[in-house]
Every structure is written in structure tokens, then in C-alpha cells.
Amino acid sequence: xxxxxxxxxxxxxxxxxxxxxxxxxxxxxxxxxxxxxxxxxxxxxxxxxxxxx
Amino acid sequence: xxxxxxxxxxxxxxxxxxxxxxxxxxxxxxxxxxxxxxxxxxxxxxxxxxxxxxxxxxxxxxxxxxxxxxxxxxxxxxxxxxxxxxxxxxxxxxxxxxxxxxxxxxxxxxxxxxxxxxxxxxxxxxxxxxxxxxxxxxxxxxxxxxxxxxxxxxxxxxxxxxxxxxxxxxxxxxxxxxxxxxxxxxxxxxxxxxxxxxxxxxxxxxxxxxxxxxxxxxxxxxxxxxxxxxxxxxxxxxxxxxxxxxxxxxxxxxxxxxxxxxxxxxxxxxxxxxxxxxxxxxxxxxxxxxxxxxxxxxxxxxxxxxxxxxxxxxxxxxxxxxxxxxxxxxxxxxxxxxxxxxxxxxxxxxxxxxxxxxxxxxxxxxxxxxxxxxxxxxxxxxxxxxxxxxxxxxxxxx
Lengths: 53, 398
Prior knowledge:
The complex is a heterodimer.
Chain A: H1 14-35, H2 43-46
Chain B: H1 8-22, H2 31-53, H3 69-81, H4 84-94, H5 104-119, H6 122-125, H7 134-137, H8 146-172, H9 176-184, H10 186-206, H11 224-250, H12 257-291, H13 301-326, H14 330-354, H15 368-389
């Protein structure tokens, strides 16, 4: 009779693969976030004083 | 074009011109001078004792701790933070992103001075400094050692940075033909410089591969050369933002209006580059952590200290850069740059000092003399930087 056993991802490299996949997805999201349409200039009041530095 | 081609009367003219340029300009009593001059004088006195009575007279170094604050800060950290020069050269000359051209000269100057002073500080660090020439002349040296590679690369890259900056020196000295000749060498020099930089930034990390039993497993990894290389990219970019912020305030009269205006765009671009490379670095850290199955090591003071470094000084500044770039919050970007610089300093100190010999009960702490000498090196570098930028055409006048 065959028994089923669940894979423990802490003992295998399963967690590393999941991490790799999640970082790839997060990486795409980060690039999209950084390349998104530019927000309006908040103006001198909100903008940090050091902006001209 | 060589100096032999320059007539002797030209050399006399240059000699007079140079002596004239050595004369101080501006006010003597400034906050920076008031702080730096006593520190430099004290540092010179300490260095006198270091060279006459040996390293043990002024440092807490021992056989157990051969790498102290001087190596940890000057060489390991200083060289990493000078990475902005090769990154910007790559961006401007290879990727052809011209908007960064306005800060290229000052970044190269910063890199050149960092290499001259921080890798030059090896003369202070080494117990027998006269042996520093051995890797260059091949005298009883292990040609297969990482240190051999690093020594040659430091020398060659410092030369490459000097060549990259030399057209500005020729322009200042009114040597027009020499300037044109040196400018024609720039692209080749830049390519050689980038290659050398990538290799020795990782080479510095590779030196720790032989110290596996001595470094805490949370900081030790076979991929430490890769981590050192990637962290030098965002560390260098953060340093360019930090130095650019100070320079544009202190030397605002030397910077043209157009450059002032485009400075915001430049900071946004640098911040974006830093955010992406920090994200990649964090991924490498997480992957190495998982791969090494280091979960159990997190539970304890060393684990908490590790989390302070990788979350507090890598992940949080990474998000701050991204947020600052997206919302044009320059203050956030600048704070993130400072945190990133501190993070690189902390990482290098962890690897070569704090988590090095972590199991030894008698830990190494730098002596006050070591700290004063390090400050002396930093202050002298700033003095030379100030002398150069107030005389040569370093900042864009446009």
C-alpha cells in the first residue's frame, strides 16, 4: 500500500524556488512602479527645502 | 604628447602658476576649518608615533585582529563608496545617458581622491609598509592570491581615474594640445576602468573567502564577492547623491544655472538606479539566506543585528528610494542615500570587524588614535577636493 507524504519546503529547496518566483514578480512590479506616469510636482510648499541642493 | 615636448619656459610658467594657485583663497575661519585643522594636526602627531614605534603603539590590533578600523573603514568601505565613479562612467560613456554628464567630472574626482587616500591609507595600515611595492614588482608574492589581484587593480584603476580626470588638469594648466590628446584617450580609459572596478570590488569580498571559520555564518557566504560588487553600485550611487547635495550647497557659486536646474532630474535617475540595485541585492541576500538554511541563526543577538543591517539599512532605504522617485520627494531620496551609505559602512564593518572572530571573548575595539587618523584621512581628502574644485573646471558652468 502506498502512502502519501507532503513535501516539507523547509527541508527541500522549495522555499528557495518560491522566493525566486516572488522576487521576479516583485521586481516587475517595482520597475512598473518606478516607471509609472510621473506624479505632479507637489509644489514648493510640499517639496523638501533641499530640492534645489 | 609627453612632458618632454613641453618647452622649458612653459614649465617655468607652469611652476609660477602652480605656486600662485597654492595660495589660499576665501575665509580661513570656517566651521569646517576650525574642526578639521586640529584633527589633522593631532592625526599627524599620531602618525609620527605609528611610524617610529609601530602599529601597536597607537592601535588595538593584535594577531587575532589583524584587520582593524583603518582597513575596515578606509579600504573596505572607502573603495565601495567610491564605486559611483565607475557606475557613472558606464552610464554616460557606454549607455550614453547624457543628462548625467554634468556630474561626471566631480564624481570622477571624488573617485580618484577616494582611491588615492583610502587605498593609499594602506601604507598606514600595513605593519611593514615598505612591502607594499612587492605585488607590483613581483617580489616573493603569491601570484594566485586575491590580494595580488586587488593590489594591481587598485594601482591600475587609480591610474585610469587619473587619466579620466587629466583633461581637466590640462585645461587648468592651459595645455590645450595635451588636453585634446588626453580627451581622445577617455573612452578607452573608461572601458578599462569599468572592467578593473568590477573585478576589484568583488575581489575585496573574495579576500574573505579564506576566512570562513572566522566570520559569523550570517555574514559569510561563497557569494560574498558578488554581494560586494552589487553593494558597491548602490553604495556609489548613494554617495554621489550625498556628495552632490553637499557640493551643490557649498559650491553653489561654481555651478551653472542649467546644471542647478537639471540637478533634480539627475537625483531622480540616481535614486531609481539605487532602488533597483538594492532590490537585486536584497534578493541575493534572501536567496543566500534560504539556500544556506540560516533560519536558526536569526534567534539571538547576532540574528537581530543581522536583521538591523538587511532590513533597516537595505530594504527600508530601497523602499524610500522608490517612494521618493515616484513622488518626487527629494528629501526622502537624500535620507535614503544617507541610510544606504551607513548601511554599506555597517556591512563592511560587520564582515571585517564586528562579526569577524565573533566567538572570541576579547573583542577588538578601535583606539581613539585609530579614529583620529581615519578622520585625518577624510579631512585631508576634503581639503584637496576643495582646492581642486575651486581652481579647476570641475563643475559644469552651463
